[in-house]
Specification:
The complex is a heterodimer of chains A (about 400) and B (about 375). Chain A has 15 helices and 15 strands. Chain A is of the alpha/beta class. Chain A folds into two domains: about 170 residues, VC0802-like; about 210 residues, HUPs (Rossmann fold). In chain A, strands 1, 2, 3, 4, 5, 6, 7, 8 and 9 form a nine-stranded mixed β-sheet that branches. In chain A, helix 3 runs parallel beside helix 5, helix 6 packs across helix 11 and helix 9 crosses helix 15. In chain A, about 40% of the residues are buried. The model of chain A has no long low-confidence stretch (mean pLDDT about 90). With about 375 residues, chain B is an alpha/beta fold. Chain B has two domains: about 120 residues, Aspartate Aminotransferase, domain 1; about 240 residues, 3-Layer(aba) Sandwich (Aspartate Aminotransferase, domain 2). The two termini of chain B are about 30 Å apart. In chain B, the strands form three sheets. Chain B has a seven-stranded mixed β-sheet with strand order 2-8-7-6-5-3-4, sandwiched between helices. In chain B, helix 1 packs antiparallel against helix 8, helix 3 runs parallel beside helix 4 and helix 9 packs parallel to helix 13. Chain B is built from 13 helices and twelve strands. At the A-B interface, helix 8 of A face helix 10 of B.
Chain lengths: ~400, ~375
C-alpha cells in the first residue's frame, strides 16, 4: 500500500501569470522542510503539489505534521495510490477508506478524470465506487449535499489516487514571496503573534530584541530566543538581533521628561531597528501593538513613534482584542513561553504616569534636547546576531 | 565569586564528593546476594547510621528518598490514605514550602479540611494557634522548622509536644530542610513522627533526600516494586548519592553549635551594616542565622539580583524554587508592601566571611547610585 500526500494550494491558484513564481517558492520551502524526513518525488498539476515518498518506511504522520506548518498550503490530503483499473480502485481502496468511513454516517464520492482515456466517465466511476462502499459499509447513507466524508478519486496519467480525509493546512502564501520584515520581539504575547501573521502573508521574518542587563536577565533573553524558535516552525530560519539597550535607557531616564520616556524609548528602538533594515535590505518593521492596549499604543503615541520611521511599520494585531491575540498564540504554541515571568525591557523603566496623548512637536523637541546618536551607534555596533533555526 | 545563596543549594563538601566517587566505584547492587552487593549495602548502612545519629534516631527509622519534596509528598499523601480515611482535617501553616503547601491544596480538592495557621501581627506563628487548630478529627499536623524565605524559626517543638499529649493519634510532620544540621534537631525533643530532609542543603549532592519515620507510625509506600528500603520505597538505591549524604551528615553533625555561633556573628554583622546604610531587614535576630531577608526599598528584587550577579555576588529573590514568581510567603509574614517587591534572600554557609558581607553592602550601595529604581 503506497500513500502520497496532496497539498492543495490556497490563493496561489488565483495568481495569474505569477503563479509559477509562487509555486516554485512553495516547492522550495516544502523541500527544505522535509529535508530530514526522507526522499520524495515532487510533481505539480492542477494547483496541487503531489509528494510521493520514495521509501516504504517514511513516517507519513510526521511529514503531514511538518507540512501543516508550511504557509501556502490550504488543504492537505493523504491519498492511496492504486493501479489505474476500475477493479483495483474498487478492491484495493476499501481497507484504506475504512478508517474514515467507519465513524461516519453519510458520504459521497467525487471523481476527477484527468486522463480522459480512462474507459469510465466520472459519474460512472462515482456510481461504481459508491455502490461498492455501500455494500461494504451498510451503515452508510449517500448524501451528496452535506456528507460527513467525501471520498475523492483522481485518475491521473500514471496512477489513480483515492482519499477520504482532508486536513487544514496553514493557509497564506509561501514565505519568501513577499519581501523581508524586521519583527520587534519583546517576550510578550503579542509580538510572536504579529510575526506569525505577517509571515503567513509570505514575508520572511527577522527578529530584533532589546535587552537591558541587569534589569533583564539571561533567562529573559533565553525566553525570547525560545519564542523566535517557536515562530521559526512557521516562518523558517530567523536572524535574531540582540541589542544591548541598558545604556540608552539609563541616558534616557536622566535626560528626558519622565512621562515621555516610553515614547522616546520606542522611537530609539525603531531607529536602531531601521539601521539594520537599511543594512540588510529589509523593507518593513513589524510590531505586536494593538490600539489602546497600553499608553505607548494609543493612536497619538503611535503617530509619534511612526514619525521616527522611514519605512512602513506593520501592526497585524492592531484591531485584535487581547483574548483574540491569546487564542492565536495558543494555536501557534507560543503562549506558554510568553507568560514565563521574567522582567522584560519594556516594564522596568516604565513611568508612573506616561503621556497617553503626546504631541509630536513636544516629543521631537525632547529628543532633540540631547544627542543620542553616539549611544545608538554604540548599541548597533555591539549587537549580537544569531541564527535561530527551524528545529522541525 | 561570593555565594550567598546557600538556602537554594550548597557546594558539595570534599568528603561528600569523595564518598560519591567511592559509591560509583563499588558499583554492586545492594540487593545482590554476592560480595559486591554486600559491599554496597554496607555503604548504605553506614550512611543511614550517620544520618540517624545526627537526629538521635534509630537506624531503622531512616529511609532514603530522592529529595525532600518526595519525603513530604509521601508523608502527607500517605497519612491522608490511612488515618485520613476517617479523620479529614489537616493543620498546617500558610508559610510552608510548596512541597507541603501544594500537597495540602491537592487534598483540599479531594475533600479534606485544611487549616492554615497564619503569622500574627508580629510576623510570628504562635504555637498556641497551631495547637488550638487541632481537634479530634485531625489526621496530620505539618509544620516546617525554619522558613526558607525569611529564616523564621517556627515553634514546632512546643506545638508538637502539646499536640502529641492531647491527641496521640494525630501524626506530626516537620519539614526540617532548612534547619537540619544548622540548628539542633533531635527527634525525641521535636515530637515529630515524620521528618523530611534534603541532602543538597547540607553540602551533599542534589537528588538525595531522606525521611525519618518514628517506629510504630505507619506510612504506606509511595513506590511499589522490588521492596527496597524495607518495602517502603522500592527502586534500586542510589548508592553514590546516599554515600555523599551520609558523609556530609557525619562531617557536620558534631559542629552544629560552633557553626551556629559563626553564622550568628555574620548575620549580626549583616544587620548592623544594613542598618548603617538604610537597607531594610525583614528578618530579625530570632530567625535562623543562616537565612536573612533584606530589602532595598525602591528597587526590584530581580534587577538587584542581576546587578549583584554582574559583580560576582549570588543571592536570591524570595526562594529559588519560585523563579521570579511573587512570593506569597513574604506577604504572609506581614512584610510591608513596599518591601515585598524588593526582597533579597541572603543565606550563609560556614565558608562566608565578614569581608564578603562588606562587598555585598558596597555593591548594594552602588546599585542605589547606578540603577534606576521603580517609580
Amino acid at each position: 500500500m503506497k500513500e502520497v500526500i496532496l497539498c492543495k494550494y490556497g490563493e496561489i491558484a488565483l495568481k495569474g501569470l505569477n503563479k509559477n513564481n509562487f509555486e516554485s517558492i512553495l516547492v522550495k520551502n516544502v523541500k527544505r522542510r522535509l529535508r530530514n524526513s526522507g526522499s520524495f518525488k515532487y510533481s505539480r498539476a492542477q494547483s496541487t503539489l503531489y509528494i510521493e515518498p520514495l521509501s516504504e518506511d517514511t513516517d507519513i504522520d510526521e511529514v503531514v505534521d511538518k507540512l501543516s506548518k508550511v504557509f501556502g498550503i490550504a488543504k492537505l490530503c493523504r491519498a492511496l495510490t492504486v493501479e489505474k483499473k476500475m477493479d483495483s480502485i474498487l478492491h484495493d481502496s476499501m481497507d484504506y477508506l475504512a478508517e474514515a468511513l467507519e465513524g461516519a454516517a453519510s458520504f459521497k464520492v467525487n471523481a476527477k478524470r484527468a486522463d480522459k482515456k480512462f474507459p469510465l466517465k466520472s459519474p460512472e466511476i462515482c456510481r461504481e465506487l459508491g455502490h461498492e462502499i455501500l455494500e461494504r459499509f451498510p451503515h452508510l447513507k449517500v448524501d451528496v449535499h452535506d456528507p460527513d466524508v467525501t471520498v475523492t478519486v483522481e485518475i491521473r496519467e500514471e496512477h489513480a489516487f483515492i482519499n477520504a480525509l482532508k486536513l487544514d493546512g496553514a493557509g497564506g502564501i509561501p514565505v519568501g514571496s513577499s519581501g523581508r520584515g524586521m519583527l520587534l520581539l519583546s517576550g510578550g504575547i503579542d509580538s510572536p503573534v504579529a510575526g506569525y501573521m505577517v509571515a503567513k502573508r509570505g514575508v520572511q521574518i527577522q527578529a530584533i530584541h532589546f535587552e537591558a542587563p541587569p534589569y533583564t536577565s539571561e533567562r529573559a533573553r533565553m525566553k525570547v530566543e525560545k519564542l523566535a524558535e517557536e515562530i521559526a516552525t512557521y516562518c523558517g530560519d530567523i536572524n535574531f538581533y540582540c541589542v544591548p539597550f541598558t545604556e540608552i535607557q539609563e541616558v534616557l531616564r536622566d535626560n528626558c521628561p519622565e512621562e515621555l520616556f516610553t515614547i522616546l524609548m520606542r522611537r530609539l528602538m525603531m531607529e536602531i531597528a531601521q539601521r539594520f533594515c537599511e543594512r540588510e535590505d529589509i523593507q518593513c518593521l513589524i510590531t505586536g501593538e494593538s490600539i489602546g492596549q497600553v499608553a505607548s499604543q494609543t493612536m497619538y503615541a503611535m503617530v509619534c513613534t511612526d514619525a521616527a520611521c522611514r519605512i512602513p511599520v506593520f501592526r497585524p494585531c492592531i484591531g485584535m482584542d487581547k483574548s483574540e491575540i491569546v487564542s492565536v498564540s495558543r494555536k501557534i504554541g507560543t503562549f506558554d513561553t510568553s507568560i514565563e515571568p521574567y522582567e522584560d525591557c519594556c516594564t522596568v523603566f516604565t513611568p508612573k504616569h506616561p503621556k497617553t496623548k503626546p504631541a509630536l512637536s513636544e516629543v521631537e523637541a525632547a529628543q532633540a534636547a540631547y544627542d543620542y546618536e553616539p549611544f545608538i551607534k554604540k548599541a548597533v555596533d555591539n549587537t549580537v546576531v544569531k541564527l535561530i533555526r527551524n528545529k522541525i | 565569586m561570593i555565594y550567598f545563596d546557600n538556602a537554594a543549594t550548597t557546594k558539595p563538601c570534599s568528603e561528600a564528593v569523595e564518598a560519591v566517587m567511592k559509591g560509583l566505584e563499588l558499583f554492586g547492587n545492594p540487593s545482590s546476594l554476592h560480595g559486591m552487593g554486600v559491599e554496597a549495602e554496607c555503604l548504605i548502612n553506614r550512611a543511614r547510621s550517620s544520618i540517624a545519629g545526627s537526629l538521635g534516631a534509630a537506624d531503622e527509622e531512616i529511609y532514603f528518598t530522592s529529595c525532600a519534596t518526595e519525603s513530604s509528598n509521601t508523608a502527607i499523601f500517605g497519612i491522608a490514605r490511612t488515618i485520613g480515611k476517617r479523620k479529614k482535617r489537616i493543620v498546617t501553616t500558610s508559610v510552608e514550602h510548596p512541597s507541603v503547601q501544594v500537597c495540602c491544596d491537592e487534598l483540599e480538592k479531594q475533600g479534606f479540611e485544611i487549616v492554615r495557621v497564619t503569622p500574627g501581627e508580629d510576623g510570628k506563628i504562635s504555637a498556641e494557634d497551631i495547637i488550638a487548630a487541632v481537634n479530634d478529627n485531625t489526621c496530620l499536623v505539618s509544620c516546617m522548622l525554619v522558613n526558607n524565605e525569611t529564616g523564621r524559626i517556627l515553634p514546632v517543638e512546643k506545638a508538637f509536644r502539646a499536640i502529641k499529649r492531647r491527641f496521640p493519634q494525630t501524626v506530626t510532620h516537620c519539614d526540617c530542610v532548612q534547619g537540619y544540621l544548622k540548628i539542633p534537631v533531635k527527634v525525641k525533643k521535636l515530637y515529630a513522627d515524620i521528618i523530611s530532609l534534603s541532602g543538597h542543603k547540607i553540602h551533599a549532592p542534589k537528588g538525595i533526600g531522606a525521611m525519618y519515620i518514628k517506629k510504630g507510625v505507619r506510612v504506606p509506600a509511595f513506590m511499589y516494586g522490588g521492596g527496597q528500603e524495607k518495602g517502603f520505597r522500592s527502586g534500586t538505591e542510589c548508592v553514590p548519592l546516599i554515600c555523599g549524604f551520609g558523609a556530609a551528615a557525619e562531617k557536620y553533625a558534631d559542629t552544629i553549635g560552633e557553626r551556629f555561633e559563626k553564622a550568628a556573628a555574620l548575620r549580626n554583622y549583616l544587620f548592623e551594616k544594613c542598618g548603617e546604610n538604610g537597607i531594610h531587614v525583614n528578618s530579625d535576630t530570632e530567625c535562623s542565622p543562616y537565612i536573612s531577608s533584606i530589602a532595598v526599598d525602591g528597587y526590584k528584587s530581580e534587577v538587584l539580583l542581576h546587578f549583584l550577579e554582574q559583580r560576582g555576588i549570588y543571592v536570591s529573590s524570595g526562594s529559588a524554587c519560585s523563579k521570579g514568581k511573587k512570593s506569597s510567603v513574604i506577604r504572609e509574614f506581614g512584610i510591608a508592601e513596599k518591601y515585598q517587591d524588593s526582597t533579597l534572600r541572603v543565606s550563609f554557609s560556614e565558608e562566608n566571611t565578614a569581608q564578603e558581607i562588606d562587598s555585598l553592602i558596597e555593591a548594594l550601595k552602588s546599585a542605589r547610585q547606578k540603577l534606576c529604581g521603580t517609580r
